[in-house]
Design brief:
Structural class: mainly alpha
Number of helices: 2
Strand order of the largest sheet: 1-2
Oligomer: single chain
Number of domains: 2
Largest sheet: 2 strands, antiparallel
Helix content: over 70%
Number of strands: 2
Strand content: 5-15%
Radius of gyration: 29 Å
Shape: rod-shaped
Length: 96
Amino acid sequence: MITCVWLMSIALNSPILVASTLQPMRGNAYKCREIWLSLELERTFNLGLDAALLLIPIFVMSFAYSLIVTKLWRGMRHEIQHNFNWQRQYCLNKPL
């Protein structure tokens, strides 16, 4: 599993490795900047990366939490019904 995460990370970020170059600044300073072949490629990559790293996890977590809430809600309804039935039975069979 960890290997898959690392391989996906490398694959998703490999375009940045290809598009990055060192550009000189004032003095002896350099900055690493992305130089894309076209603005359309840059936008496509950034939107795809945003979707892969932000939107997909949000949808997966929302789905998982909705399953958890549904399971807890059903369990609570069952427990409330069980307690109600037990109390009613206890009150009916209660010795005077």
